[in-house]
Write a structure and sequence with these properties.
Layout lengths: L9 H52 L22 E7 L2 E6 L9 E9 L2 E9 L13
Antiparallel strand pairs: 1-2, 2-3, 3-4
Length: 140
């Protein structure tokens, strides 16, 4: 009489478990980096309002605002998000401060405004956020 196979052998199951383990070892760190980059992007979205306010203030007064209040913004601790603890204006700089969801607490990303030919040009290469978590235009 011929026996019909009724399931998987132990070695086949061990191979499947090993493959899943290898995939998880690669996927989990990549996903964590992805979420941290998303949190940094959230800070840039919150800073967009501050960039507009600073640009309007500069075009009206031909000088940089010294605080959030002078730029017409809420206090820095009132501009928050899921991973952002504050957005502060200091002259031509906008500092975005992050919580521990981005690498470590109090990491910052600094947006620097420069007046150029009647327009404000923004760059974001300064700060303490690790370069691998910054958007590509901020990794200079």
């Amino acid at each position: 009489m011929k026996r019909v196979q009724q399931g998987f052998t132990l070695i086949e199951l061990m191979i499947v478990v090993a493959i899943i383990g290898i995939l998880a070892a690669i996927a989990i760190p990549a996903y964590q980096d992805y979420t941290k980059r998303a949190h940094v992007s959230e800070g840039l979205s919150l800073a967009a309002g501050a960039k507009t306010a600073v640009s309007e203030y500069f075009s009206t007064n031909n000088a940089w605002p010294t605080t959030n209040a002078s730029a017409g913004l809420a206090s820095s601790t009132a501009i928050t998000g899921n991973a952002v603890t504050g957005v502060a204006v200091n002259a031509s700089q906008i500092t975005v401060t992050y919580n521990s969801k981005v690498d470590s607490t109090n990491n910052t990303l600094i947006l620097q405004g420069t007046a150029s030919g009647g327009a404000i040009v923004w760059s974001c290469s300064a700060g303490t956020v690790d370069a691998k978590y910054r958007p590509s235009n901020c990794r200079q």
